[in-house]
């Protein structure tokens, strides 16, 4: 999803519509994640909207709550990302049972993945230096595992 230049990680709150002209085809990724063929085709026809609410709780921990909806009548999904590196679990009808961890990252080059490996360069190179996290971090790292379907996803 593309965002206007004035939007930063300091406040992602808002409604975001997927621009398929600027996005890669998600079908190969959805197939690798075990999403059934018919459901993938319906998703590919849909206009996808992401409603984001970013806030800091009383303990000074950043939360990014995501509600994804579509125009095709397929049920949306909700993700509650807590940027404290604690493991959370949830289940949804598209991706199955997931475990995830999320955190602010100050130095992508020094960041380790959820399983302790260095991050691949396609995750670490070419990002803007925003430095808007609570301690001057410039990135948010998301690690998701679906043990049942055998996949792991990493996002910056």
UniProtKB/TrEMBL annotation:
It comes from the Eukaryota. This is Uncharacterized protein. InterPro entries: Pericyclase_pydY-like. It comes from Hyaloscypha bicolor E.
């Amino acid at each position: 999803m593309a965002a206007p230049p004035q939007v930063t990680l300091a406040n992602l709150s808002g409604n975001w519509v997927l621009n398929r002209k600027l996005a890669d085809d998600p079908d190969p990724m959805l197939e690798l994640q075990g999403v059934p063929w018919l459901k993938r085709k319906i998703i590919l026809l849909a206009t996808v909207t992401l409603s984001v609410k970013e806030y800091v709780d009383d303990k000074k921990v950043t939360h990014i709550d995501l509600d994804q909806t579509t125009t095709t009548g397929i049920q949306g999904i909700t993700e509650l990302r807590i940027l404290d590196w604690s493991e959370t679990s949830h289940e949804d009808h598209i991706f199955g049972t997931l475990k995830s961890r999320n955190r602010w990252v100050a130095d992508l080059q020094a960041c380790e993945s959820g399983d302790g490996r260095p991050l691949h360069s396609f995750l670490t190179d070419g990002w803007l230096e925003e430095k808007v996290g609570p301690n001057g971090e410039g990135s948010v790292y998301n690690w998701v595992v679906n043990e049942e379907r055998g996949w792991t996803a990493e996002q910056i």
